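Complex 397.
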Amino acid sequence: MTATLILHPGKERSVLRRHPWVFDTSVARLDGHARPGDTVLVADAHGKPLAKAAYSPKSKIRARVWSFEVDTPIDHAFFKRRVAQAVRRRAALPELSGQQGLRLIHAESDGLPGVIADQYGDTVVVQLTSAGAEKWRAAIVAGLVKATGCARVYERSDSEVRGLEGLEPATGWLFGEPPAGEIVIAEHGVKMAVDVFAGHKTGFYLDQRENRRLLAELSKGKRVLNCFCYTGGFSLQALAGGAASVLSIDSSQPALERAAANLALNPVLDAAKAEWRCANVFDELRKLKAAGEAFDLIVLDPPKFAPSSAHAERAARAYKDINLLGFRLLAPGGLLMSYSCSGGIGVELFQKIVAGAAADSGRTARIVKRLQGAADHPVDLAFPEGEYLKGLLVQVE
Ligand code: SAH
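Predicted structure with S-adenosyl-L-homocysteine bound:
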């Protein structure tokens, strides 16, 4: 018998709006027994079933909805179907066709809470972060293999959020043989090695794909400064777009070494125009200003300063600080491409922060374009939390 999570009166509203999370504070009781990851019915205070969800007894998110159709069996076939649908949706979008690096499953926004799957050539990397996703690992992997025809699947379930679910880290090959050499993808014609074992996320920031393309388009003849460059994604696109020079800054020496190695994978790019600098961006931008440097195009793509809204205030100061420093370093007519990937900082707040930085720097600046994650990172309208990446392209006078 499927156990039933009975909600407090009124707490059914978000489920009726098709939001996939049921918080512990919304739950009155569990009727029956369920282990972590088991499928439970979610019902309103009168016992009317509303959804089928994965039970997470250790997490504040007590259940994550698999289906709002209460008669749908949650079984192997269900996951195969959901995975195939996610892959098909991407195949139907021209922006994504032919991409060698592609997010196949974007968790809640693809109806699969706790499931991330990224494809790099014929390798798929999965990250399972919830008890429900953990339980259905085999079905999800089988679905991915069937839908993509990939040669191998690697698991990178070492994200800290697994701890909140009471899950241990899990990494390793789940299907196929390890690749013979490095995994290399081409993005807009630029080769990038992807370290699926130790790189950030599943190895690469796929969400910035279209924004890197835009940077290439803007770079011709420009002095470009790329802050928080990681393995050089934006830097190499700037070079490919014909930048006059590209200075890239990151505090991680290994990331910079990978970036330089990525540049070496692309002999058509002029390595003499690239400089990699290991430094703290906050300090280095001040030094550059003191040295009288100026740039035509500056990218600010910092790490997540605010994982949740609880950290928003401190994070807002950090975003303000780097954006202020960025504005100060822009030559007249220059462009600032500024991002936040913090879930805790909304689109409006981010714009306010950038506006505050422009004002404090004494510059007049205009939004040229609003930026977001690529189409393989969709945002389910019922799940606005999925919209973590936001950016602004701003031009100063
Ligand atoms: N723009 C990159 C992703 C950036 S990830 C891309 O498109 O691939 C964030 C990077 O910021 C990481 O490489 C991390 O090492 C670096 N970082 C974090 N804090 C930093 C700081 N204070 N100064 C410089 N780099 C920092």
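The mean pLDDT is 97.
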